[in-house]
Amino acid sequence: MRSTNRRVRLAVAAIGATALVAACGSDDSGGGGGGEDGGALVVWTLENLPDRVAAQEEIAAAFTEASGIEVELVAIDEDQFNQLLTSSAAAGELPDVVGALPLSGVQALAANELVDSEAAAAVVEDLGADTFSEQSLELTRDGDTQLAVPSDGWAQLLLYRQDLFDAAGLEAPETYEDILTAAETLDSPEVAGFTGANVGNDAFTQQTFEQFALGNNCQLVSEDGEVTLESDECVAAFEFYNDLMTNYSLSGAQDVDTTRAAYFAGQAAMVVWSSFILDEMAGLRADALPTCPECTADPAYLAKNTGVVTAIEGPDGEGGAQFGEIVSWAITVESQTDAATEFVSYMMEDGYEQWIGFSPEGKVPTRQGTADEATRFIDAWATLPAGVDTKAPLADFYPQDVLDALRTSPDTFSPWGITQGQGALVGASLGELPVPQAISAMTSGEVDPGEAAQQASAAVQEIADSLE
């Protein structure tokens, strides 16, 4: 055990990698990889917003007080992760632990043999594998090897105006057919049937399309790593999205901000967005308030009158699938192993409710509960206060069926490329955005859906070739 002095350092990464290496290595107590007596435990976190960093400082301080292990918390931007990882590994200054690491980041660590899979497996085994979402464990494994400890996730959702659907006698939009029927029925000069992203330089466009593509069993790659965007399933997904966007959506360029704004203004009957929208839709964030006509009298009107679909099914689909992101705790090969496993275990148990609590709408628990209290964490999640300027539990605004759909969503996540072991390709593709560029060209009329699929496939194949 370390000294019992309560000591938590915070170093926010500067723009370049050099600044981060200095932050990790300049402290007299040592950085990551120093052995069991190498000084403070160095923890990188990709949850780098100031209020979230402050919350993590509090959790780390409580861990230090309980364990005597000092923690040096380093907040970094996700966009800088690969660069910082490379430079820090070369300098021998890897952190002990990385938190809020997306699936592609876990794969990047594993591909470079920088992850301590035995330590991750030990944490999962100690906490109880049966207390985790089975799919979250599957997505963070390589075969039978547990690469990281899945902590939470955010879900991509199809949100729809339940009041408009009920008035028109429409079924919930769970299939391609139901979605197109609803979009055609509800589309009018005042309200678009659907709004979705089509900007070519925005990863949100791919996330939106991928939600629909997965539902039709359209995959980025096959099990043997072959790019499959020209498959019949994928061409059908491009055709479906093109129909929605060109016939029933708002005109012009649409992105993460404009799609939310249109739905909040009551100008669209359906939208695809992440679960991070839920607190905003309830009127809990001052800079993103709903502006629909009914929202003047009741800022939470949309929250009370919005239905949620998680998994969508296309004609070639197999039971529905969903895009979402699982983030994890990864322990590196140069970690102070005992201290690192103790810290991650703490974050997944004693500190877990506080961890998911600083943004519950986007941090759906992947660990349902403990061996003694099987639903402890998932039950607590629904009661945790969400929001920024105003705080209130999601359960104050959303019916139980919406919360149930969200709480079980990690079990349906199946993002492109991860289960096929192509995390590096996924990460590189999100850097160059070939799929959003093809969608932009398609929805602007430059290419037809078949040509868009060919364009995206060729570009992804070129990226895949560059990684060999």
UniProtKB/TrEMBL annotation:
**Domain of life, per the record?**
Bacteria
Q: Using the UniProt annotation, give all residue ranges assigned to the region (Disordered).
A: 447-468
Pfam families registered for this protein in UniProt = SBP_bac_1
Q: Where is the signal peptide?
A: 1-22
Keywords from UniProt, A to Z, are: Signal, Sugar transport, Transport
Which segments show compositional bias classed as Low complexity?
Answer: 452-468
Annotated family: Belongs to the bacterial solute-binding protein 1 family.
* Name of this protein: ABC-type sugar transport system, periplasmic binding protein YcjN
